[in-house]
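Standup notes, structure subgroup. Blocker cleared on the iron/sulfur cluster input:
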Amino acid sequence: MEKQLKKVDIIFDKGECYNPIEILDKALERSPDDIINDLIDSGLKGRGGAGFLTGLKWKFTRLQEGDEKYVICNADEGEPGTFKDREILDQVPEKIFVGMTICSYVIGAKEGFIYLRAEYNFLLKNLQKKLDLFNRQLKERAIDFVIQLRSGSGAYVCGEESALFESMEGHRGEPRNKPPYPTVAGYNKKPTVINNVETLVYVAMISRLGVEKFKELGTKDSRGSKVFSVSGDTPIPGIYELELGMTLSQFVEEFADGDAKAVQVGGASGSCVPRKKFAETIIGFEGIPTGGSMMVFNSSRSMYNVLHDYLEFFAEESCGQCTPCRVGCQQLLKGIEAVKRGEKPASYLDDLKKLTATMKIAAKCGLGQSVSNPFNSIVDNFREEIIY
Ligand SMILES: Cc1cc2nc3c(=O)[nH]c(=O)nc-3n(C[C@H](O)[C@H](O)[C@H](O)COP(=O)(O)O)c2cc1C
Ligand code: SF4
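Run returned:
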């Protein structure tokens, strides 16, 4: 049966669910292995974009030997069009702290960090105040775990987990080769769980509400709900928590003004879906997954300009470490400019698509690998707007 669009209120709920210490106490009544099994059973997948099963990530880290392990909350939120973590950090930070503390208990970590993007430094004062109180409460309960704040310096690539560790260690924020994965060698080359802000809050809320309640929402491949940042040509831009599994038609009916010609799902590194595919496109891991960004474009928008903006962004943010991305982003940008000016034939777009296929295979990290998503989806669906 087709899912209907459904608004939910789990993440921001401050009602009876909002006593962080009560949520924590309840969670810690269970053994680390039970918590892992609950998370796996819940089907919770990371909300930062890649969608890895949270319970499995924690299990792999728990299995590592040694007592120096870390929990990191990825609050870099650099994806264009994404602004949901900012609101979570502002409105319900204690739920993030609780998720991190549950993780520390499960994997055996004594230190946790929130890596906050530089542009969110205005949140630091409030976060530090609430964190001081929370850390004190942990101490009173003889829980040997402390959370600290770390500020980024404004690079999109530092949201990539291994670049984030490099940045935290005081180096240039450049992605590492993988493997080893963070569960084995993350921050300080020690086993580390890194999760998105929203993922950690869902962990806390699964402890509070129970696995079955979470599983009632969503689909087989995409359990639960998700916070979406809705922007662009919508009369009601903002942040909405919605059940996973809706179609884009349902989304557009609720959020657009009747003239949506495309929705960019998942930010600049995501895919652009044209109107003719709204009905068949499911928002979730079985369709198009998203870290939360939904940008609506109406018929007044030039998709050439949209693609041009994205490519400029990637060319600017490429860390330059690997050739396919450093050179590829520049060539794609110059390439569509040349096609638009009529200096290259329309068929040159197919050569550029081959370049994105190479980048997908050969680029070192997700930044360069994902440029093919916006490029191909816009070129394939809006070719007439790109050519001369
Ligand atoms: C270029 C790039 C930027 C990223 N930015 C973020 C980010 O801002 N926040 C985030 O949670 N994950 C980001 N990620 C994904 C992280 O590498 C990582 O998968 C995520 O933090 C894991 O958390 P999750 O399992 O809870 O989703 C980014 C990945 C890439 C390649
Ligand atoms: S893909 Fe791009 S951002 Fe990633 S390592 Fe290579 S140059 Fe840097």
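Discussed briefly. Residues 46-50, 52, 74, 76-79, 156-157, 159-161, 194-196, 199, 365-367 surround flavin mononucleotide (ligand 1) (CB under 6 Å).
Next: hand off to the docking folks.
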